[in-house]
Amino acid sequence: MAIPVAVLGAGSFGTCLAVLCARRHDVTLWTRSARIAEAIRRDRRNPQYLSDIVLPERIHATPDLGEALTGRELVICAVPSHGVRDVMKRAARHLSGEALVVSTVKGIEVGSWMRMDQVLQEVLDTRHHPRLVFLSGPSFAREVADRRPTAVTLACAVEAFAISVQQSISCPWFRCYTSPDVIGVELGGALKNVIAIAVGICDGLDLGQNARAALMTRGLREITRLGVQLGADPLTFLGLAGMGDLVLTCTGDLSRNRRVGMELARGRKLAEVVESMREVAEGVRTTRAACALARENGVEMPICEGVRMLLDGEIAPEQAVGILMSRQLRSENE
Fold first, then answer.
1. Scanning 30, 79, 155, 294, which has its CA 20 to 30 A from the CA of 231?
2. Which fold has domain 5-180?
3. Does the annotation count 192 as an active-site position?
């Protein structure tokens, strides 16, 4: 059944989801830029992201948040993590009380160290809280746009709402599973970006496949340790939002976070690397958040801490490797 959909954010992922939803639904696509909205309406292409994809006529682009949200039953938030609070706070007064809100954002808010589910609960009315759904999993926007088979997880405290979104956006090449573990799905999606930076450093230094596999495995262990401490189900980290997303982001050539690590290993400065990227590498901000959460909760995360030290200019890439390899020997289950 067709329903009115709004997608907030016209980056790569927002654009590809708008195209996906427009197969069955009428979609409003909100962008901050009036210029981009006009270009989409005129040329049926996003001039900045996935510009080779023709956008269906069922997509109406607008820079007006109220226009984008009025009468929408499904609202998908696909803005960078640092913009979620502002955008959703402004969106709140336009949201229908019956709307389902889906966050695709994989990050942790700097300063408050809040997950996106916590941010949304803080800025949205309590009537929306049960209707918050969180999409995560191995899903490069480019491949979704190209209709390559993709599977993701939809987490919601109320299973019926996750199932409703699942039925609304699943299609032959985009398969959605449901989960009740919002904390685990949110943390898995955010923290894998930190490990991807570490793996990018490893690849940039040409340390080999053994080192890459070890970093990914021990990185997943760190994510799980923190997740369990914060109330997540450990099994979530073996699923699409955990291991699945970690494998993709650590090994895929389209991974922005892996690219950051590789460029740092080659001697480029962080500011220079970030400035050269058209889209946000969430792991840069998330690294500090992960380490802050780990310290607050008494959880040891040496890989994440090593990435933080490197990003903050405290150590060089080669030193980070030495620190990890010379740590006290212990049981794998610690």
1. 79
2. Rossmann fold (3.40.50)
3. yes
